[in-house]
Amino acid sequence: MCNVANLLILNQAHPQTILTNYSTQEKANMELKMLIFANSSKGVFMSVEISRTHDLIKEALDFRAARQDMISSNIANADTPFYRPRDISFEEVLRAKKDAIMGADNLKLALANTNASHIPLSDEKNNSKPMLFFRDGHMARNDGNSVDLDVETTEMSKNSIMFNALIQANKKDKLIFMSVIDASSKLQ
After folding, report:
1. What is the DSSP string of the chain?
2. pLDDT at residue number 128
3. pTM of the model
């Protein structure tokens, strides 16, 4: 495939002849890339919202990658004396962001305050950041290390399955977006 910058320069010189040898899908992809490249080279960044969940999937992928690094670190330190395995909890952050995107905040049942002297309900968890914690509960060895390789490899497998599922969801969103571009190009 051609370099986008070269294609953009050639397209400015001969706009009708450059994209004639490509399929409709390839033309739509190249036109979108040229538009994004042209705007970004001018200092104007184009924001294309593929779907409402695209940012959520992107953030979930970032958290899954961070969790993979954390689990890898635990496995690497399996023989380090007094090492405690760490983990990251980000599900509440993603749930709060999903509720904000999908507008599910109004579906929550509010707690009724029937008396002014009742203690008000406070949000015990801060949903703005993922929480790092030590995964304890496993028997520590004589050297004080509590890393259980069976648990770590199981968690790594679950995390990689979720990561791959998110990649597939992201590809599906992209395919839907590209099919819309392809269908709209056929209308012209």
Report:
1. ---HHHHHHHHHH-TTTGGGGS-HHHHHHHHHHHHHHHHHHTT--------TTHHHHHHHHHHHHHHHHHHHHHHHTTTSTT---EEEE-HHHHHHHHHHHHTGGGGSPPPP--STTSPPP---S-TTS-EEEE---SPP-TTS----HHHHHHHHHHHHHHHHHHHHHHHHHHHHHHHHHHHHHHH-
2. 67
3. 0.61
